[in-house]
């Protein structure tokens, strides 16, 4: 089989753009696990809420991409705050099983609520950019893919600066690395956990709203993406944010390459095949686990 270099470059660029959006989801999961030590099974439904918020904000705002994106992110951050205050605030760090049941139940409720109000019919989302894009020779990238990838990079840079140089970020890292020592210096775990949940929901909302113009929007879209995000967090090392980003971009590339040369069934199974291989060779993941590491 002859591989065309231009076609391979097209697949590579598409894979990087997709991987950066996957990374937003995985980093949100890593934040929640690092601070609260729980796996949020409703994380995919926050992404779905972001996608639906984008779907309904766009017509109201005249198909303008950026205001709709901001509205969707704010909506998911509010949803994250409500989820934390109503369901997660009273969870203790030793109630891992209870957190699974609560977030899994919330996931099911959100899926069926969305299906009741919005039906299961897939929705196509149009923006001011339509299908326009940048063309370099025979290589073409749509504006929605480029803007989504650029927004993800800006979000990662902002997250890095926040975690590294602000009191808010240092408190999150302190809780993740040593909860008892953080308590001794006056850091309040509940406030830190609430902020982490809001931040993770905002990242997920950015991913959902950026994915909405690229893929079909359905109540079940979060389910298809969250299992990949779980795999990415596991491959990168639980709580390791750079590890989650690297694993996500690698997955985007693998999916794009596999989908470009083989059947789509292999594309969907690629991430889990990689996860199994990684866990057999490195049970802790590719990078060091825990502590909400940012570098």
The shape, in one word, is globular
User: How many helices does DSSP assign?
Assistant: 11
End-to-end span in angstroms? 40 Å
Task: Label the structural class.
Answer: mainly alpha
Number of strands: 2
**What's the gyration radius in Å?**
19 Å
Percent helix range: over 70%
The description of the largest β-sheet is: 2 strands, antiparallel
H/E topology pattern:
HHHHEEHHHHHHH
The parts where pLDDT drops under 50 for at least 5 residues are: none
Instruction: Return the average pLDDT rounded to an integer.
Output: 86
Strands of the largest sheet, in order across it?
1-2
Strand content: under 5%
Protein name: Amino acid/amide ABC transporter membrane protein 1, HAAT family (TC 3.A.1.4.-)
Pfam families: BPD_transp_2
GO molecular function, one term: transmembrane transporter activity
GO cellular component, one term: plasma membrane
Summarize the structure.
By secondary structure, the protein is mainly alpha-helical. The chain is 73% helix and 3% strand.
Detailed description of the structure:
By secondary structure, the chain is mainly α. The chain has a domain at 7-119 and 142-222. The protein has eleven helices and two strands. It has helices spanning 5-36, 43-60, 65-88, 96-118, 143-165, 167-177, 179-184, 189-211, 221-236, 241-261, 264-281; strands at residues 133-136, 139-142. It has a two-stranded antiparallel ribbon. It starts with a helix and ends in a 14-residue tail after the last helix.
Brief descriptors of the model:
globular; 2 strands; single chain; two-stranded antiparallel sheet; 295 residues; mainly alpha
